[in-house]
Amino acid sequence: MKVNRLSNVLGAEVTGIDVSKIDDAIFYAIHEAFLEHLIIVFRDQDLDPEPHIEFSQRFGEVEVHLATDHLHPDTDKVMLVSNKQVDGHYIGAVSAGDYWHSDLSCQARPNLASFLHAKELPAEGGDTGFCNQYAALETLPDDLRQQIDGRNGIHTFNRMRNPRVKVPEMHKDDAKMRYADRAPPDGIHPIVRTHPETGRKALYVSHRFTVGIENMPDEESRPILDAIFEHQLNGELIYRHKWRLGDLVMWDNRCTTHHAYGGIPAGQIRHMHRTSLIGDVPF
Ligand code: SIN
Question: How far is the CA of 100 from the centre of ligand 1 (A)?
């Protein structure tokens, strides 16, 4: 197994292994690399849902995504992130990742990690950006850091309550069912969270899910969140992944955010399988 850095800020590529055939020693090495590099790209994998789930489960318990209409037909533990249509209906989540986020931070126990596997790719577009939230916190200006000290962010699944995001055109008619009715109670989490395994501190807010700061009027929290979001978009904190067929990318939701850049030409397919793990209550 070889581990090569993919950027100065986060991400490493692992080659020379088939993740469906690893022993405990390799798992231990991967786990170490994961905590060090925050996202790991395994090249040249060809995983059916079962080995994809089994590999994910080495790191924790796989969660069934709350968007139940996007699940794989053979197993509810794999979600389809796909623009493929069957009989005129999209079979997977098309807009997943359209805004920067950490997976399901709107839940009481947000996702620990996610594993996205490229099954079909377009000739261009479809990149995913990953942002290092340890580094985002370390480089946050002091005045902003002071304003969020000891504060909790309010995270919602409901796009209609978030002025920073849009409801995708294709979901205009079923937006209430899709975003409001499905939304769990708001996730209330420290804006600076402590990674339970590394002990390091990371920023834990995002455009997609964070709509306010607990016990702070919106007029006051809005400019603070806007400034943090702008800071997170600093290119030096981001690695942009250009997918290759067979890539399996795993990311740590406790210290990174990610975003699907889109830009897929009309008529081209991007079809991915995704698992996510149940995480801890952030502290
Ligand atoms: C996601 O946000 O889970 C999907 C990211 C992607 O499709 O690139």
Answer: 10
Closest atom, ligand 1, to C-alpha of 272: 7
- Predicted TM-score (pTM) of the model is 0.97
Name 207's Cβ contacts closer than 8 Å, sequence gap at least 6: 99, 100, 101, 164, 165, 229
- Does residue 93 line the site of ligand 1, with CB under 6 A? no
- Taking CA atoms only, the protein residue closest to ligand 1 atom 2 is 97
Cβ(133) to ligand 1 under 6 A?
A: no
Q: How many whole angstroms from 272 Cα to the centroid of ligand 1?
A: 9
Helix (H) or strand (E) holding 134: helix 133-138
16-43 tens-digit pLDDT: 999 999 999 999 999 999 999 999 999 9
**DSSP 8-state secondary structure symbol assigned to residue 62:** B
**CA 139, CA 154: separation in Å to the nearest integer?**
23
Quick one: which of 206, 202, 207, 270 has its CA closest to 241? 270
3-state secondary structure 66-89: CCHHHEECCEEEEEEEECCEECCE
Nearest to 16 by CA among 34, 40, 51, 43: 43
